[in-house]
Amino acid sequence: MTSTKTPDTTAPEAVPPASVERVQADYRTVKRLGHWTTARHIEVRAHRGGVVLDLRSPRIAVGDIEVRLDLDHAWVKLLVDDDTDIDSWDLRFIRRGRVKDWTGENGSGRRVQLVGEIRSAEVRVHRGGVATLSALFSRDFVEEARKARKEGGTPSIPDPGYKG
């Protein structure tokens, strides 16, 4: 006896692929600093690697940011503003894993929702000045600073919201 299944049409609408930013880091570290995206939906897959995501840019569309994680023995560092609200309710932990947010202060600013699954992995949240220092101590900043000096501009990596 065979049964036929009708497709479920009540499923929530998926985000169009064009508005999703994807970052993959397998056995390496990937950094996305400064004005690297305008998308509010970000997918991160990392296996034994690391990802740094700068979410401080004013070019990211207004509204909540969803970061979908698939981490296995990896880490993700989020650079956010001081008043950012980090929501990890829908994040599933398998084996060891945690969200490290030293200040633990969720503000009234933008909301970053972490969803997905992490296996023996962690998410580190760097806010305000610590986020600026994390961005400054990178090769990307040095390259951008050299380019900005030649062109007479200002680097965007330390503080993407700076208008100087």
* Mean pLDDT level: 85
Number of extended strands: 9
Taken in chain order, the helices and strands follow as: EEEEEEEEEHH
- What structural class do the secondary elements suggest? mainly beta
Number of helices: 2
Beta-sheet strand percentage? Answer: 35-45%
- Could you name the ranges where pLDDT drops below 50 across 5 or more consecutive residues? 1-12
- Major sheet summary line: 9 strands, parallel
Shape: globular
How far apart are the first and last residues' alpha carbons, in Å? 72 Å
* Helix percentage: 10-25%
Rg estimate, integer Å: 18 Å
Oligomer state of the chains in this structure: single chain
Walk me through what this model shows.
With 164 residues, this protein is mainly beta. It has two helices and nine strands, in the order βββββββββαα. Strands 1, 2, 3, 4, 5, 6, 7, 8 and 9 form a nine-stranded parallel β-sheet that branches. The longest helix is centred in the last third of the chain and has 13 residues. The N terminus is likely disordered.
